[in-house]
Amino acid sequence: MDAKTEARRRWMGVLARASAAEIAARLDAAPALPAHVRLRGPETGLVMARGRAGGDGAPFNLGEMTVTRCAVRCGDVVGHAYRAGRDARAAELSAALDAALQDPGRRDALLDAVIEPLARAQSAEREAIARKAAATRVQFFTMANMR
Fold it and tell me: What is the pTM of this model?
């Protein structure tokens, strides 16, 4: 996979895990996004989540989940967003940011002002959860019966 695709995958992952309020708060400190036109949505619907037994076994339908999607155009660039849940505002903000981040002239400023702070906050939250779980971990050991 090329670096451009990997970078886009990263920023879309960060945006997918952020709430609309978190994104909007970071956008207040960022350069203004360009005007965008909605091409699709935001629309909420269902998708089938699939799984595999053991990670590599036969696929099975796990169940349906709610997803909101949006597509916007900023100039010549189209931004897309698919998000778990029903947050239409977050989907539209994510799509607008996706389009703006594809513009090399805006990318660095938006990465520094929006994506990196969100990624750091998400990482800190994951670490806090991991520390809390590690503090409650029980270590089992066996002792040989001495006769």
Answer: 0.82
